[in-house]
Write a structure and sequence with these properties.
Length: about 280
């Protein structure tokens, strides 16, 4: 499952989501800006950096880890040290958050960072210990949903949709999570499995407003256009304004390649990386 992509989109849609996991969120939490940052000197990539609004407060680093990595904390400290060194004049302090599905995935030997863990400088969040999904804020509940499998994932996804109150952003994200989990199913099959009617989806509502709903083929094409537009926005934000030629190539990608690009772009440093990826796909 492409959890990096899911968490990137969750934080991009709602940067305050990270602070719902913290016992003491910062002041002006709703003004923080989420960024995906590449530390080029070491080729390290951070899952997310939450930059304070006045550029002189606490910066938050986030790492979502769903596979065992016995050097995770050492890598995080290295990344953070380089970032702070390069941006020291704009920061007053830092805190890191490591998000795990469960304690069994955490790095076993934590001796090198025991003081950072004990002080809360690096805060650990174990999603399976946060409580029942229905009792959590919606965004945090979606994080927990990414950890479930099989029938449990289906059941909780249907319950989450029922609790969404028709919020199309939440419904779309739930559907995307389930599509990634059950990648042998089509979007239509997932909608049926979740009990979603076409009229509930954002794609349909926007298409209807424009008078473009003429069948399932048109609905799928609109969905693909939205995915392409989202990827282009992410690329322009990460790499700077793309040339018209590159934008045209991205706009011509199939849905499978668009989804693959959504994951691959997290590792891009420049438009040359995008060009190389496009030449292979």
């Amino acid at each position: 499952m492409r959890r990096d992509t899911i968490f990137y989109q969750l934080f991009q849609q709602s940067p305050t989501l990270l602070f719902e996991l913290l016992p003491q969120p910062p002041a002006r939490a709703n003004e923080y800006v989420f960024e995906a940052v590449e530390v080029k000197e070491t080729a390290f990539r951070m899952d997310g950096v939450f930059v304070p609004p006045d550029r002189s407060g606490i910066v938050y680093f986030c790492e979502a880890q769903f596979q065992k990595d016995e050097m995770l904390y050492e890598r995080m400290v290295s990344e953070i040290g380089i970032y702070v060194y390069r941006n020291r004049e704009r920061l007053s302090d830092w805190q890191a958050v490591a998000i795990y599905p469960s304690r069994s995935i955490e790095q076993s030997n934590t001796g090198m960072v025991r003081e950072l863990l004990a002080s809360g400088r690096i805060l650990r969040v174990f999603l399976d210990e946060l409580g029942e999904i229905e009792e959590l804020p919606s965004g945090v509940g979606l994080m927990v949903l990414t950890t479930l499998e099989g029938n449990a994932a289906k059941t909780e996804a249907r319950r989450a949709i029922a609790r969404s109150g028709g919020d199309r952003d939440i419904i779309e994200m739930i559907t995307k999570i389930v599509v990634y989990k059950f990648n042998s199913l089509s979007r239509d099959e997932v909608d049926v499995m979740l009990g979603i009617e076409l009229q509930q989806t954002r794609v349909y509502q926007e298409a209807k407003a424009e008078g473009k709903v003429e069948g399932k083929a048109e609905e799928r094409e609109i969905g693909l256009q939205r995915e392409r537009a989202l990827i282009l926005r992410q690329l322009n934000r990460k790499l700077g304004n793309l040339s018209s030629q590159l934008q045209s190539k991205v706009s011509a990608l199939s849905i499978e390649n668009v989804e693959s690009l959504g994951e691959a772009l997290l590792d891009f440093n420049s438009s040359a990386d995008l060009e190389a990826w496009l030449s292979q796909n």
